[in-house]
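Hi everyone, sorry if this is the wrong subforum. Our group has a chain we'd like a structural model of before ordering constructs, and none of us has done structure prediction before. Sequence below.
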Amino acid sequence: MHVSLLLGHIVDVLGGSLEGGERNTAIHRIAPLEVAGPGDISFLSHPRYQQQLAASQAACVIVAPAMRDAALARGACIVADNPYVYFARATQLWKQQHAPARAAGVHSSAVVDPTARIHPTAIIGPLCVVERGAEVGEGSVLTSRVTLGENCRIGARCLLHPGVVIGADGFGFAPHQGAWVKIEQLGAVSIGDDVEIGANTCIDRGVLQDTVIEDGVKLDNLIQIGHNVRIGKHSAMAGCVGVAGSANIGAHCTVGGGAIVLGHLELADHVHVSAATVVTRSLTRPGQYTGMFPIDDNAKWEKNAATLKQLHSLRERIKALEQALKAA
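Answer:
Right subforum, don't worry. Here is the predicted structure as tokens:
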């Protein structure tokens, strides 16, 4: 059943100032500016999109105070200090109104070890596996096909999307006479409160101590977190990031899609790594870091790559020339 929301109700719940519109206007959908119609609400996240704002047919647009006049010239608007955060909260309100509430408890197809501890308000979805000694905290949701390994712990209000694996063995082997001797992974994984983990992401258990994901961390799909990694509070990583064992990532960091953090490195708080970057050294100061070779047509790329290989010898030749000039 489709349920609309009134603009007045949205403002009553989320705050902001409704201007140029009627409280009893029915909103049937949240939509992007460029496709929003007369029954939709949209938002302007950045002034560079104000041309789309002017052309939008949305019933109402969420805007920052600086864009109020431009929005009113078009029609109704909700003025909010941070339109993007307001939009995020609007999606939460929308889901609350339109999605049936999930009942707490364990799905009949899930497998839960008798020694596992599941909070009564938690949800364990279809085909999940919760192994011996594992713990799931208050209000946390394991959607479907989630595996929570032995003695691993999940805090309160966490959300784990389909296919997540918590607590598989870390990649630990000792070379011996041309073969490999397995290092048993004797630690676990400890996940804090308000953590969200995307589909098919894997977090390995520690060797001797736990792999730790602190409160508020957000991980996208298809991320690999190696053994004994620590990720600080409210850090976020986009899809396909790989973090090798024993890396220590600070709080409020971001790592772009496809980036790699090598093992045993440290990232300070508020470090932001661009997509596809390979972090090969510790980053001890806050800031934005990028390390990727720009895309080009293949012939030019090969020439530039060949030149890049010669940089060291060119540097030495320049140093020799400089010394010769000084001596002359």
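For your construct planning: Residues 5-98 form a domain with the Udp-n-acetylmuramoylalanyl-d-glutamate--2,6- Diaminopimelate Ligase; Chain: A, domain 1 fold (CATH 3.40.1390.10). The CA atoms of residues 101 and 255 lie 33 Å apart.
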